[in-house]
Each structure stands twice: as C-alpha cells, then as structure tokens.
UniProtKB/TrEMBL annotation, chains A, B, C, D, E, F, G, H, I, J:
<dbReference type="GO" id="GO:0003677">
    <property type="term" value="F:DNA binding"/>
</dbReference>
<keyword id="KW-0456">Lyase</keyword>
<comment type="function">
    <text>Catalyzes the reaction of cyanate with bicarbonate to produce ammonia and carbon dioxide.</text>
</comment>
<feature type="active site">
    <location>
        <position position="115"/>
    </location>
</feature>
<dbReference type="InterPro" id="IPR048564">
    <property type="entry name" value="CYNS_N"/>
</dbReference>
<dbReference type="InterPro" id="IPR003712">
    <property type="entry name" value="Cyanate_lyase_C"/>
</dbReference>
<feature type="active site">
    <location>
        <position position="89"/>
    </location>
</feature>
<dbReference type="Pfam" id="PF21291">
    <property type="entry name" value="CYNS_N"/>
</dbReference>
<dbReference type="GO" id="GO:0008824">
    <property type="term" value="F:cyanate hydratase activity"/>
</dbReference>
<dbReference type="Pfam" id="PF02560">
    <property type="entry name" value="Cyanate_lyase"/>
</dbReference>
<feature type="active site">
    <location>
        <position position="92"/>
    </location>
</feature>
<dbReference type="InterPro" id="IPR036581">
    <property type="entry name" value="Cyanate_lyase_C_sf"/>
</dbReference>
<dbReference type="InterPro" id="IPR010982">
    <property type="entry name" value="Lambda_DNA-bd_dom_sf"/>
</dbReference>
<comment type="similarity">
    <text>Belongs to the cyanase family.</text>
</comment>
<feature type="domain" description="Cyanate lyase C-terminal">
    <location>
        <begin position="76"/>
        <end position="147"/>
    </location>
</feature>
<protein>
    <recommendedName>
        <fullName>Cyanate hydratase</fullName>
        <ecNumber>4.2.1.104</ecNumber>
    </recommendedName>
</protein>
<dbReference type="InterPro" id="IPR008076">
    <property type="entry name" value="Cyanase"/>
</dbReference>
Length: 147, 147, 147, 147, 147, 147, 147, 147, 147, 147
C-alpha cells in the first residue's frame, strides 16, 4: 500500500505529465482550492468520491486513490524551520509579527486562539499597479480558553 | 539607553496601567493597527512623531520614545518553534499548509515568493453564527525569481 | 511591574512561608483546583477578584495581584523535553502512547483533535490496595477538522 | 524478520483493507482497548496467543505475529516535539499544565511521580450538549522517592 | 528566599571555606553519602532536622536551610549531553552500553525497567594493584510493565 | 560485507528464532555476560574464536562472524537523549545524580575521572522482599588528571 | 520520474565522465554561469530548451531533462550549519560580518533588505601578486520595508 | 573593564545620540568602511590610535577605547540560523547557492577555499533604473588544500 | 557511479579482506600516511595514479578508483558532537583546551588562525615507560587577519 | 566567592592592564605554558602556591586566588560547535580528519583511545620560509579497551 507521502509524490509527477492544475483538480473534486491541494499533498483525508475524481483526472491508479483516503499524520515541513524561501517567508512573518497577532487576537476577542482545525485558507493573486500581490487569508474559528 | 525589548516591555506595562488599547495607539500614531502594534513591540522603527504620539498616550518618557525610533534587529519568537498556543497555531498552519501555499503561489504567479518586506497584515474578528472567527490577512508583493 | 514568572515565584515562596495549600487557594478563589494552580503559576489570567483572594491568603501585595491578572504568554517547560522526572513521565506517556491516543480519537470521533483550549484537567490520588494511584484526567472538547 | 515498525505498518494497512477496528481487535485479543492498540503499534510485546488472535482477524501472516511478540524499543514520536496536531495537543498540555500537575502530585502524594510503567490509559468520547468531549485518563501508580 | 540552586552554590562555597567533607555532612545528617550529597546539591528535599544539621556544620544561615527543605524541580546537567569529562564518561557508558543493559534487564527480569525513583546509588574507591578503581552501584527496584 | 549494525540485527533475530540467551552466548564465548552482549550488539570487536562460537550457537553464517570481528565505531543511542524508557532511566540517573557522582569521585580520589575504557559492567537481578531489584555496577579505573 | 536531487547527481556524474565544465554548460544553455550551475544542481527551474541543451552536452536522457524543468523546493545545505570547509567559510563570513552588512545596508539604503530573489551572483578568480583571490559578488535589489 | 559586546552597545547608542555615521567613523579611523564597522561591533581588534579616533568622534570614554583594542572572540549571530530578515537573506544565499559557489571555486581554482581571514568585504548601494541594488563583494585569498 | 562514501566503505571492507594496512597503502600511493588515509576515507581527491595504486593493492575496481578522484564535499562526523569515544576525546580536547590554544596562538603569532587547509597531520605511537602514548601533531600555516 | 568563570575574566582583564604574558605567568607558576593558561582560564585547579604566584604577578586579590584553587566543572566552548574562527579550525580538523585519526590509532595501537586526561598539550610557532606555522601537539596516554 502506498504511503500518503508516496501518493503525494505520484500526484506531483502526474501533474507534470498531464498538465492538470490544482484549480482543475479542485473543480473536479468539488472542494475549495486550498483544501484540495492540501488533501492531495497528504494533509487531509479524502472521501472515496473525491479521491476517485482526482486520480481519474491525473490518470493515476487505485493504489493512489486508496492512500488519499487514509487518515493522515499531519506535518509537512522539511525541518523545524523551513528552508525553501517561498515557505520560509511565512515563518518570517511569524518571527516578526507573531506577538503582534497574539496581542490583536487578545484585544479583539479575549484570551483565546484562532483555531487551526476549524479553519480555512485562501491564496489569491491580486493585481496591483505597484506590482501584483499574493494575498493569503487565514480564517479560523475563535476559541476562548474555557474550563 | 533602553533596548527595544525593554521599551516593548514598558509599553506593555503602560497599557495595563493606562488601559489604552492598540487601536487607540494606532489612531494616535496615524498608522495601521498591526503596523503600530508591531512597531511598539520593537519590530519596526517609528518616526519621531509616531514615537512621541504613542509615548504621550501611554504616559511614557523620552527614553522609550528614543528606543522606539532606533533600527530594530527583528525576530520575536521565544524559540525556533513557538510555545504559546495562540502563536503556535500560526506555526501549525505552516506545518500543515506550507507546501500547499507554495504550490498555489507557483500556480497562480510562477516561480517566486510573497514578500514579507513589502507586506501588510490585518487581524480582524468576524462575526459568524457558528462562532465568531479570527481572519488574518497576509498581503505581500509577489516577487518573481529574477536574475 | 512584576512579570508573571516573578509573580509565580512569589506565590511558591509565600506557600512555603504561610503553609497555604493549592487546595485552600482554589477554595478561596472559587475555581477548580488545577485551574487555580495553573493560573497562580502564570498560565491563565485571573480576574481582579480571583487575584485578590489568592494574594490575600498568601499575604502578598498588589504588584503580585496585578501580574496575575495580565495576559500570559503560555509555556512552562524548562526545555523542549522536560528534565524533572515527575514532569518527564508525562512526556514519556506521549512518546509511548501518543500515536495510540491519536488512533483512538480518530476511531471514536473522526478526523479531529482533543482541544487543549476548551479543556479541563483533574489530578487525583486514588487509594488502591496495590499502592495508591495518581489519576490524571484530560478532558477537552472534540474539534473535527472542518473547512 | 519484520521489525516492529514494519509490523505496525502492516497492521495499519490491514485495518484499511479489512475494515477491522481497534475495538474489535481489543475484543479478539482479550486485552484493554488502549493496550491492544499500543501493542499493535509496536509499543508492547504480545503473547503468542494475543498476536495470533490479532493477525488472524487482520488476515496477516506469521511474520507479523512473530514481530508483535518481540521486545520493543519504545518511543513513537516523529520528533522531540510532535508535529501532528492531534498528538501535539498532548504536548501542549504538558507545556501549559506540566508544572501544575507536578505541584498537585506533590501536594496530594508527596515527593514522587506517577509511574508510566505501572500505568494504564483510557480514551473515551463523552457526549456533551456543548459538543462531545474526548476524555483521556492517565492512571499510574504513585511512586515515592525512596532510597 | 534562596532558590535551590543558590543554596547549592552556598553549600559548595561553604565546603571550601570550612573544609567540611561530603562524608562528614552525611554523617551529621544521618543519611547515606550519595543521598546527602544529592540533597545538598538541590536534587532531594531535606527534612528540617537534616537541613539544620548540614547548615550548622557548614556555618550557613536559615535561608539556606529553608531552601534545602523545599521540593526540587530535578535535573542538574549543564546541557542535554554533559560537557564536564568526569560526568561525560557516565553518558559515554549509556552510549556504548545502554542497549546492553536493556537487553540484560529484559533477559533477567522481563519487560520492565530499573526504577530511578525507588533507587539508591553508591560511589566507592576500590584499591586495585592495577590502579585503584571507581565503582558506582546503581540499585533500583525492578518495575515490570503492568497495565 | 555486513555492517556491525546489520550483524547485530541478525544476532537479535537469531536469538528469537533459536531461543538462545545472552547468558548462553557469554558462556559459549567464554567472556563476561555484559561484554559479550555489548560485542554482539556491535560495540566491541570479537576475536575470530569468539565470533565463531557465538555464530555457531546462533546458527548464523560467516558474514556475521566476520562483521563481529571488525573494529566498531561505537555509540548506540537512537538520539542524544534516549527515548526507550528502560534506557532513559539511566540518562535520568545522570541528570539527577551526575554532579553528585562527580563530587564524590573528586572527594575520594582527587581531580580525575572513572575510565569508561578500562571499564567493566555488571547487571544483576537481586531478590528483595520489597520487590526484586536491578543492580548495575559500573567499575572503571580511576584516572587522575596528569600532565 | 527523477527527483531534482537525483537529476543533480546525474549531472555531477556526467560532468566527470564527459569532462564538460560548468562554463561550457552555461554557454550551451545561454544563461549566466552561476545561474546555470545552480539550476543544474536543482535550485532553479529550467526551460525546456535550457534543459535540453544541458542534457545534450552531458549526454543525459529525457528523464533528467524533465526533472530540471520542474519547480524546485530550494535549500541545499547538508545541515543548518554547513560542514564542508569551502561552504563553511561563507557561513563564517555571516557570523563575523553579518551585523556589519546589516548596519551598512541600513546606513546606505534605510530600513530594508538585499533581496535574495531579485538577485544575481558572480564568482570569479582574480589574479593577485599576493596570491590569487576568489571574488564573490552578491547583487540583489534593495527592498525597503513598505506597508 | 567593558566587554567587547558592551563596548559595541555603547558605540551603537553613541551613534544615535551624536548622529555620527559609519562612513564618518571609517574616515576618522582611516580604515575601510566595512572593517571599521566590524571592529566597532567587536569583531576586530583596533590599534590604540584607531580606537582613540573612533571614541573621540563618538564622545565615548577610555573604557570603551580599551575594550575596542582587546582581542575578540569572534561570532555575532543571535542563533545558528540568523533571525533578522536583513541578515537571514545572507543565510538564504548560502542555502540556495552554497554548493554552486563551491563548484565554481573548484572549477576556476582547484581544490581549495576562499579565505575568510585574508579577506575583505564591501557593501555598496548601486543605482539601477529597475530599483537600486545592494552589491556585496566578498573578496578572499584563494587557499588551495596543501599538505 | 559510486559516491565517495560508498568508495570509502569499499576500501574499509577490502582492508579487512586483504589485510592491507594504511601504512602499506600510503607507501604504495607515495603520499604521507594521514593524507592517504583521509583521501581513502573520502576527504581528499586523489590523482588517477594515486587512486590506481591504492585500488590495485586493495584489489578493487575502476569504479572505486574513479570515485576516489572526484572532488569531495568534506565532513565526516556522525553528529555535530562525535559519539565514538576515540573521536570524542578530540572534541573533549577542544572543549577543555580550545580557548587555551586560541590564547597561545594570539600571544605567539598575533590575531589570526592556524590554517586547516594549508595543513598537515601526523599520528604516532610513542613508547613511554609509563605506558605508550599517542602523539597527534596538527601543523598548519599561520594566517593573520589581513584586510 | 568568585566563580571560576569570573576569576578567568579577572585574569584576562589583568593581563591587558599589566601587560603580563601567558609565558611569564607559566614561568612564575612553574608549570608548562599550556597547562598554566588552561588553569588560569578555569579548566584545571591550581595549588595554593601556583594560584598565589599567578595572582601576585597579575596584581589580583585573594578572592581570585581562592577561585583558581577550586575544582572545575570543565568545558569552555560557547556552543556545541565553536563559532570563533581560531577555535573553529580545530573543530574542522575533527570533521575532516577525525575518522582518519581513529583509523591510525587503531592500526598503530589497537582498540583504544588517546587519553584526554593523562594528556599534555603544546602550542608553538615554527618559522617556515613558506610562512610561519602553528604546530599543536596533542600527547595523551594510549588506553586500550580493557575489561
């Protein structure tokens, strides 16, 4: 049986071979773009139908479809501090703005957190005369500390 | 002369004593909320006027105002992997969704990054019948790899 | 102004001097035992009344009471892997049983987590003919992964 | 000969293929649910009968059964600090409440520890109007420091 | 109030000044040599009488005596891997012989551990024609894994 | 040619298959129990005769015998801090008692170390009415710092 | 499909076998020397034509050419701190001169960074009577912190 | 006596108070810009005259001048991997281009290194229509491996 | 093509099989003993003739000879702090005497280093009535800090 | 009472103030140069006479003399991997030549180590037409593994 990591590798390779995009995969699967991408990279379990739709489009077999349905052990960074520059910038945002975000969550909501479980994510390119921008929206349920 | 870290500590204490909010500080300073918070926590240098407005509201002295104007050496986490749960959830988002964000930036923009320098940040509480949400917007200029 | 860590140190010392117990402090504060202990060790913010009741019993001053009310930056281990044997055994439980607990949460509840925010904790000594036992109950809301 | 890790992988795969649950495995083996799960994940040695009952239900061969009987070198985390969110929450509990638990063990029992060897574990879903809860019970013999 | 670490430092200094030995301290305290040394270095709590006997001999004050009676948070190495050569050799023994000791415990006793809580330690110089030897005896209760 | 690690793995497996004990191996090899175990786990080189005697008893081939004779690169822990509980307790002993042992070596012998090279080790189960004990004896030559 | 790392390994081997130089590869590819080297080592994606020209010269197949075109996950050091002396000296330069470079960027440009994305690199041997020199030019766009 | 680190702190503060630039300091000292900056930050020892000229301009005392003349223990990063974004980009350059630089040094010079001891550094702002650039020149003597 | 590490492994195995010594290899290669050993372990590139002479004596093939000629990426420790006791003692020497060596280099030569590139090494057994000694000579060119 | 580290700092400062050299200190103390330097940096205990001679020459008080006589906890590096370039080169030697030295010790002496306890060290500047050299001699007793 394939591991989720091997299945993700197969998905990446099939994308190169078939030229299918994450957007097309999301449409075929019928789920949001970022969720679908994360699931195909092994971070969320798919339903049988979702896995089937994705593997059909990517011309992959039943073994990949099965792996996509299993429960993941999540976590995808290559190291505690990510090395790839595109991913590192997200870490840098936490280094520079992490306590700022904490202060603003506490001021606006109280003593609690933004959930990373009841959570959705969006990544969009936004045209801008000063140069297009990448806008990433992290949208999680507020969870107050509650005994 | 105070270090930026000591100045940030003084700001936090003065907020407790005076009851002034980050929102009031941002308004007094005349800059966006998240920028102002980050600057007062020592992650951005303030102009003389900005530092003056903030310290006046917080009833702090000239030594704090001076420290707020100096060039920061940025980085604010207590450890490579943050321990506080409110901040950790941001790290967890990178662990689970980092490669997803990387894939989507590359698909939508090409081989490059979201800048963390030409960058703005917003944190908002959004009412929701299923429980209010924290929405964090990371908005950085797209920078293509360019030789 | 005292930091939460200095306040916690003052609390520990006052307990030795006055002989007051965590149980007596919890009763005075009117909150559960483990919550009160955690709050007095600096991991939860107390209300003004709660802080006042605790510091009165411990014969501590207003500076400690104020520190107990401020928002904590949580996290209390002396190292990523705790060294003290009483605390290390909890880490050992995760090393040996962490994946077991994960499997059982997924089998009984689905793809999600036990919240550590909407969470309560209990520690009790339970008499047993084969030697008394320590029973620790971790009780957190189930949070399903939900987009 | 299979390693315990390979045997655990075979067990996980066979569970997906056969649809057998941990609860059914525990019943077949005749041991508590959490013990059985931990043993099948390679953290406890099984007797010949226990291993036989589990592998029969999972339709696995003698090589897996043999590996399940060997003495484990315990420890199952992917890193010193676990990355998977379901497991990380347990680590977060130690970060936030570890010293609290230590204080309460000492207050109730004296200078000693909760054993992680003479120890049992239970994981249960508990219905709750405010949302079902996961209740994890750690139950270990109290061991006083004794020269 | 002194911390246990400050008290240990005071003990070490007083030993230099007074010329008192660990053996004399153990005799005055009425406890075994290694236990007494460990306690005076802050790794075990002393009774009021024990602390009093030790501080009297060392000509130290009540503040040290009080600190010696408080509950320790144990752990005394300067780093995860100790640097001082005399202590490092103990770590080297675990690196070279750790799995050997594990195998022999399992062969002689079954699946379990040597307790480090119900435990005593002895360090002796043993005359030997080929050069005197240091003999360290680790003597802990066997604890079988027991659910 | 097999590595020492692969040879050790072959030895462990052959022990399960043949039911031969470390004690029987030590007797066949004609060396002390702990030395023999360590050598078969790859931490000491064996003579041709010793390796032959061990592999004959274990019904292993010449390739294993050859690997057992090669010079080891020593060190056997899975991580800087060992994870398996049976081995971890040895590390905990160093954390709690390392400086104590150092003090006692210095008091009894002077400024030097217990050698881990001119060294022998014994592990024994000792019957005890309060529960049998594991007694580990570390016996190394005293080496004074000598220029 | 080959990974970028396997493709880089194939490139290195083919260089030894064919005797082709990085300079010849850069000329064939029609891109700067350092860019071409980095791309063939897997740190930049090549166009189909570039990959074709390089693999033709190196007598490598289509699988390598395809791998050279895929999007890299960047980062090439063997450890957080590089071990190879030729590479380590670059790290040493940051250790000794990092804050100096930071001060000079801030003095000459303001609060910002040298981009490592809009960036080019040159490595040249420069004859010198006192011994030839290696001159490395790092040339990146200045990016001011800009909200 | 001041440490070099305290002297560097005094220099930074005096620069803010007096408004003196690194360029003015270099001119007063009569050494290159980057060398002077590094020396005043504690990474090179200054002669008595150099230290005198710098402290005179900065209106600092003899204690700072003395500290600037002592032999440094070099190394200035806040962590093994630097956190400040302006400095981190230099580390990122090594992560992405380190092996490229190594290959090009070996191709152009043979088996050796660029010295970081017989070494000079230059940092310049270069006007560019596409946005000004920061150009950093690392210029070290080539040292061949030589037995 | 073999990696340098695989070639080194082949060399070690061939030494066991053929009984050839490092001294004989150095003589056949016509280079110093320590250089030859390091080169055959993959830390220096050999010329075609040197590699040929060594592989002939060791009865190894052309693939090993080729690998021995390629440019190494140097660094041979199994971890940042070496675990094998024979190698660890060298690390211990740096821990105990590193700053001493630094002081003496500075006192005798000035502000600079002992080169590890223009460097030779010798290891010799020296008879001694008090027990034979291992004498290791590190002999590197003095390099002054020079701008 | 001063710690050994504070005493070492006092020694370094007094050397700057008085202009006394390590060589003069060694002569006054009557011990070898490297031993004396190491002892004054806190890595060896001095006799009362030795400490007296050194502090007299350095014009330091009795508190320093006393600290120099106490038993050290050895280990002097600022990090597991040293950062200062003069000291780092020693670490680099172990990285590149550590296994070479191990092989040569085993070939010349058998299965054992060079002692770092029964050990002496010498650092000398040696004139050389190609540039003066630093020659460091590590001279330790050979200790065979001996049960």
């Amino acid at each position: 049986m394939l591991t989720k990591k091997e299945a993700a590798e197969a998905v990446r390779n099939a994308k190169v071979v078939t030229g299918v995009t994450w957007a097309q995969l999301a449409e075929a699967v019928g789920r949001p773009l970022a969720w679908t991408t994360a699931a195909l990279l092994g971070q969320h379990p798919m339903s049988k139908e979702e896995a089937g739709a994705a593997t059909a489009l990517l011309e992959l077999g039943e073994d990949v479809a099965l792996a996509l349905q299993t429960q993941p052990t999540r976590g995808a960074l290559d190291a505690a501090v990510p090395v790839d520059p595109t991913i590192y910038r997200l870490y840098e945002v936490i280094q520079v703005y992490g306590p700022t975000i904490k202060e603003l969550i506490h001021e606006q909501c109280g003593d609690g957190i933004m959930s990373a479980i009841n959570f959705r994510l969006d990544v969009r390119r936004v045209p801008d005369p000063g140069g297009d921008r990448v806008v990433i929206t992290l949208d999680g349920k507020y969870l107050p500390y509650q005994w």
